[in-house]
Amino acid sequence: MENSPQYLFLASGVNNGEGFWIVGIKNCDDNILDDENLLDCHRKELIGTESAKDILLAINLNINNLLNELRNKKYLIAIPSKGIPFDIPLEIVENIFDFWLDIYKNQEAWEACLGLLKVRKRIPLTNLIESQSLKGNSKKWAIKIEALHTYVPSSLKNEKLNNPMWE
Length: 167
Fold this sequence. Notes:
Helix content: 40-55%
């Protein structure tokens, strides 16, 4: 029962007028769209519970890294009360979902990529890639992980102007 089959899914939804993407896990006996807030299921993979939890963790870390980087660069991203903002295009979320689902199939690659993702939480991998610090597959995976963090929204940056000193 501990590693029973589960659906790892990517769906869109609306909650109180706010649109969102959500990546989650559902029991394989349940219909994902039974949740009244979910509109459409974009990805659905039947895998074991432990695998689904591991992949979900990596996807969420990747999305959080991306959102934190956009916030640090002062992009206006509306954060919904639930899920991933619609400001992140579906294609970007699908690419992240697909990458982590696919890389999980190779344990050695998974461990290396998860390690690189954790490093990416602190610093961009571009310096390690350019300085030739990474070799072989690690470099190849670092380039792919860095590519999952390259989205830049078309929305304006939140640039606060300083008030004039005479006010």
